[in-house]
Amino acid sequence: MALGSPGGALSQSVGRGTISVSTVGANGHPLPGVKVEGSSRTGVVCSATTDGTGHGRLECGDARALHVAARLAGYLTAEIDIDASAQTSVAISLTPAPSVEQSVTVKSTASAPLTESSSGETKMAVEEAKIGPLRPNTLIDALPLVPGVIRTPDGRVQISGLDEEHSSLVVNSVIVNNPATGDFGLSIPVDSVDLLKVMQSPYLAQYGSFEAGVVSAETRRGGTKWDYSLNDPLPDFRIRSGHLEGLRDAAPRLNLSGPMLPNRLYIVEGLEYLIDNAEVRTLPFPVDETRSKAINSFTQADALLGPRNTLTATLHFAPHSTEFANLNFFDPIPVTPNAAYHEDTGTITHRFAIDGGLISSTFAGTRVATSVNGQAESTMVLSPVGDSGSYFNQQSRQATRFQWLETWSPAVIHWHGEHVLQLGSIVAHANDQGAVSNREVQIVNSAGQPLRTISFTGSGSFDLADLEPAVYAQDHWILGEHLAIDAGARFEDQSLTHTSRVAPRLGLAWSPAKNGSTIVRGGIGVFFDSIPLDTYAFSSYPRQIITTYGNNGNITDGPRLYANVISQAPLSGFPLVHEQEQSGNFAPYNLAWNVEGEHVVTRFLTFRLHYLHADGHDQLTLAPEVSASMSAMVLADSGTLQSHQLEATSRIGPDKEHQFFFSYVRQFAAGDITEASSYLGDFPFPVVRSQIVAHTAGEIPNRLLLWGTDALPWRIHLSPRIEYRNGFTWQPVDQFQNYIDLGSAAQPRYPRYFTADLRAAKDFNVGPKHAVRFSLTFRNLTNHDNPLQVHANSGDPLYGTFFGNYGRHELFDFDYLY
Question: Coil, strand, or helix at residue 203?
Answer without folding.
Answer: coil
